[in-house]
Design goal:
- InterPro entries: ZPR (IPR039312).
- The structure is a single chain.
- The protein has two helices and no strands.
- It is mostly helical.
- It has a domain of about 40 residues.
- α1 packs antiparallel against α2.
- The protein starts with a helix and ends with a helix.
Length: about 80
């Protein structure tokens, strides 16, 4: 019984370590995604200001980026619980 308990404790510990690594990786990708989205929005705004037509599927509104930010925030809050 002690052997099984020790084995399960070790397995639990390893799972928790992997979980922490995955949380950090998810945070990194979330930040990278947000940076890329900001860069895209900046370039699209600059193109629009220069009078360059923007294809409809690339025309990003502020509501879509706000929704993405809100969605990301909700995901982060859930993972912190």
């Amino acid at each position: 019984m002690k052997d099984l308990n020790s084995k399960l404790e070790m397995e639990n510990f390893l799972i928790m370590q992997e979980n922490e690594k995955l949380k950090m990786l998810a945070e990194f990708f979330s930040q990278e995604n947000q940076a890329l989205l900001n860069e895209l929005n900046y370039k699209l705004a600059a193109a629009a200001a220069a009078g360059i037509p923007i294809p409809h599927d690339l025309n990003r509104s502020t509501s879509s980026s706000a929704a993405a930010t809100t969605s990301s925030s909700k995901t982060n809050k859930k993972s912190n619980k």
